[in-house]
Amino acid sequence: MSYGSDSIEVYRQAAGYVDRIFKGEKPADLPVQSPTKYQLVINLKTAKALDLEVPPTLLARADEVIE
Q1: Nearest to residue 3, comparing CAs of 34, 43, 30?
Q2: C-alpha distances in Å from residue 15, one per residue of 11, 19, 36
């Protein structure tokens, strides 16, 4: 199981920072931003190998389920 920021969204935010710097803003004046989108990924194959049971409610909330 993995819960973390969406790497595509992080790169998109970084591109926004680069754009603002190229337009003349000083990097020190830019605000610090945290990721706004997080993903829950569950690997059922590994869970079964470890003899773990994943509740159906957790599977329903997952963004991606690897079987």
Answers
A1: 43
A2: 6, 6, 15
Cα separation, 40 vs 60, in Å, equals: 10
Confidence at residue 62, expressed as pLDDT on a 0 to 100 scale: 96
* Global model pTM greater than 0.90: no
Q: What kind and span of H or E run contains 2?
A: strand 2-5
Residue 45: C-alpha distances to residues 12, 25, 56, 57 (Å): 31, 48, 15, 18
Asked if 54 and 47 touch (Cβ cutoff 8 Å), the reply is yes
Mean pLDDT, 10 residues at a time, over the chain (67 residues)? 91 94 95 90 95 95 94
How is residue 21 annotated by DSSP?
A: H
